[in-house]
């Protein structure tokens, strides 16, 4: 898939279906739905998300993405360190896996797995960009960490999700 704008190939999901689909893709069932809604909120602050059970007005996902970005980087560094690869190889891993638009990077992998279809977009927006999906992947990682209470439990939960997303499959991490 080429970087840039993409259009969902299937009919739009309902808000409840977006949450269910995202949790299935991640392999994590959220206890705190508000974190999941915020992670998928690509629209700006103040846009309401109407679920069947209640309405959420989450912040945009950028704060969760910042947390998730740090966690992703640390998990990948831990996996890279265990391989005894030369120091220069870390840059190749980071430039590939943490890149928004690289075919093996966060955005493209998220699009391939269907996370783009789970985003809550601004009203009137019919498409998403690969960069928006990359931000959502980072935010979802941050949300999983907080959902289980952070700390060691959060770290372990995030490692499972990162594996589920295939982000540890880089040849230099084996």
From TrEMBL:
<feature type="domain" description="RNase III">
    <location>
        <begin position="19"/>
        <end position="149"/>
    </location>
</feature>
<dbReference type="GO" id="GO:0004525">
    <property type="term" value="F:ribonuclease III activity"/>
</dbReference>
<protein>
    <recommendedName>
        <fullName>RNase III domain-containing protein</fullName>
    </recommendedName>
</protein>
<dbReference type="GO" id="GO:0006396">
    <property type="term" value="P:RNA processing"/>
</dbReference>
<dbReference type="InterPro" id="IPR036389">
    <property type="entry name" value="RNase_III_sf"/>
</dbReference>
<dbReference type="InterPro" id="IPR000999">
    <property type="entry name" value="RNase_III_dom"/>
</dbReference>
